[in-house]
Each structure stands twice: as structure tokens, then as C-alpha cells.
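hey can u check if this looks right to u? its 126 residues, i copy pasted from the old doc so theres a chance i mangled smth
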Amino acid sequence: MENIKILIVEDDYDTQMFYKLFLGKLYDIEFCRTDIAFYEMIYKNKFNLIIMDIAIKGQKDGLDLTRELRSMQNYKNVPIICLSAHVLQQDKENAYLAGIDIFLEKPVANELLLTTILNYTRSKAC
């Protein structure tokens, strides 16, 4: 699992700290809280997987950022896991239309999140 680099787009500090404790020993993880920080991260790094929240700070939301990723050569095939508290059917449909690979609802069971990450990092050419 080493050398798997994950970008977590999440604006809640407590949630970031949970991810750091839960995933930090298994993966190389980076965080961004805003759309501006997101651009800085994706242009400086190459990530193998992205965990995207829909609601983040800034002018754009996670769906806008996902659509942009899908139009970039370096990121058009990178797995994107949407992890959001926006759980209406329309939210899910909009997320899939934007280009996510899978939608998980917050709060998500730790085992489900880890299994999902493992499945995408094993099945895709990371």
C-alpha cells in the first residue's frame, strides 16, 4: 500500500484528523479545504485516488472540481470516491454525472471506507 497517494478534499478539521489517524499509516495522504488549495495540490502532485466531499469552502463545490478533474489528462481515470452528507437521490445522481466512481454517505463505516479504497487502489493502475 505504500506509495499510494490520496488527496482528501474535506473542509472539516475534525474529519481531516480522523482520516489522518485512520488512513495515515496505510497511505500517503494530503488534505485540502478549499477549491484554491485543491488546485495547488493537483498541480504539484500526482494522486492515485481522491476522496471528494461535495460541500467545501470556496467558489466551487466538489462536483465542480470532479468535472474539472475528469477533463484533465492526468486525472481523467483516477478513482474519485465521493464521501458526503448530501444524501438525497438527486445529490447522488449529480455526483455520478460529475464523474465520481462511487458515492458513500457520511457517516461511513470505517470498514466500508477502507474496503472501498483497497478495491480501487488494487483494481486501477495506481
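The two ends are 10 Å apart (CA to CA).
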